[in-house]
């Protein structure tokens, strides 16, 4: 019933001291309303929590539910720059300082000091070998050990002796890795059918090979020699599978170092690198799926 000036106005409607009514209702009436909504929203919250709990029961803590929908691994490199373009002058350290800084930061994860713990790391050999089976993801065996990957395997691109990673000499290094996918088993090429003729000598058992060449025809003959450093100059299978952050917190991806030893000066050169495997594909929509391209321009004489 709306309030008016004659019966005391809105103040009396809000609280009537004579009848002890709040907004036209007695305390008992408000109590019933409170109990109704308490039970109503309590039921809704219970249904919501129950649904979430039921959903969580179907999700593994260690393995993505829709693993079959995950694309093949991406191929990425360090240093990274805007539009994957690197231009520098070997005579001017300021021009390549961002690149060497990124390489130093990245390689610090592979320092020998951090891989000494025998409970967390193990030696997996310096030659390509078969997958390192550490049990299924759902097995209750706890945290898995990780394979060591000493920086020395990357030769002059390790940053141990040449802290400028070749940039000072106009022979830049690039560190390459396959991105992590939980429980992914990359398969080495079983045939040479889809591999360029120049890359076929790099094929060997238990290895995902990588090969780089000029992206554009006009750059043919201007790239010079590319040196590859790492186990088998590719990605060895004993570093797979990856068990995820919970079970494999110390995991180190195998690396390949590329050193471009004789790039033609004062020219923009576009280089494409690819990895080859039976279950590694490429996509025009994703330029880093199984491959990448990079632009170099080394200025100066």
Cα distance, first to last residue?
94 Å
CATH architecture heading of the largest domain: Sandwich
**Topology as a string of helices (H) and strands (E):** HEEEHEEHEEEEEEHEEE
Strand order of the largest sheet: 5-14-13-9-11
Could you say how many structural domains there are in total?
A: 2
Family: Belongs to the X(+)/potassium ATPases subunit beta family.
Subcellular location: Cell membrane; Membrane
Transmembrane segments: 34-59
Keywords: Cell membrane, Disulfide bond, Glycoprotein, Ion transport, Membrane, Potassium, Potassium transport, Signal-anchor, Sodium, Sodium transport, Sodium/potassium transport, Transmembrane, Transmembrane helix, Transport
Write up what this structure looks like.
With 301 residues, the chain is an alpha+beta fold. It has two domains: 9-57; 72-298, Immunoglobulin-like, CATH 2.60.40.1660. Helix content is 19%, strand content 20%. It contains four helices and 14 strands. It has helices at 9-14, 27-57, 93-107, 244-247, and strands at 15-16, 21-22, 25-26, 75-78, 85-88, 121-122, 146-147, 173-178, 207-214, 226-229, 234-236, 256-260, 269-275, 291-298. Strands 5-14-13-9-11 form a five-stranded mixed sheet, covered by helices on one side. A four-stranded antiparallel sheet has the order 4-8-12-10. Strands 1-2-3 form a three-stranded antiparallel sheet. It is found in: Cell membrane; Membrane. Pfam families: Na_K-ATPase (PF00287). This is Sodium/potassium-transporting ATPase subunit beta. The sodium/potassium-transporting ATPase is composed of a catalytic alpha subunit, an auxiliary non-catalytic beta subunit and an additional regulatory subunit. Its main location: membrane.
